[in-house]
User: What shape does this take?
Amino acid sequence: MTSPLTTENALTGANALLKGFAMLGKKGVRRFVAIPIALNICLFTLGLRSAWLWFEKSLTTIENALTAWLDFLTWLLWPLFVVALLLIIAYGFTFVANLIGSPFYGLLAERVEQLALGNDNDSAFSWRQLLASIPRAVLREAKKIIYYLLWLIPIALIWLFSLIFPILTPLTTALWFAFGAWIFALKYIDYAYDNHGRSCSKLQKDMRQQRMRCLS
Assistant: This one.
């Protein structure tokens, strides 16, 4: 069996986005997109509401503890809260959403691959199959998160170093874009590899052999 990266009909590069949108209307695809989106919207709404209530309560506590001439500090907390909230949403929510959606994404990748290879026969959706795939999918997603964090730490340190030496800013900006593209490729190609029983290390090896294709 050929690698999902080198299959002739594989959806790779920038065209994958357009082809992916075109497949949203295909039979057997919509459900694997709609269900995780609905779950993520509920999770996002609940998390945002909880964060807002926590901040209001914390702000009231701080206001009661501060003397009158230090009240201006409460207004300084607002931009800090907004920045913190954006970081939480960008990273924390993304991680949790990926964990929740990973079983659906695996089935979605399987269906998309069938369509890409010309198989338009839609097999019946099985909740039993979905539930059985959860432990493996979550474990695999956790491995990708660990891989992401192991690379994020040194890249973040390089970025902090560029704050001291601004001449390095263009380099670090390009590095961030390349890192983001690589992680996205790793994340979404991995679903096809998992469906074919291939390990994460095999995926990383194949990606290194086609580095520019994965960064496109």
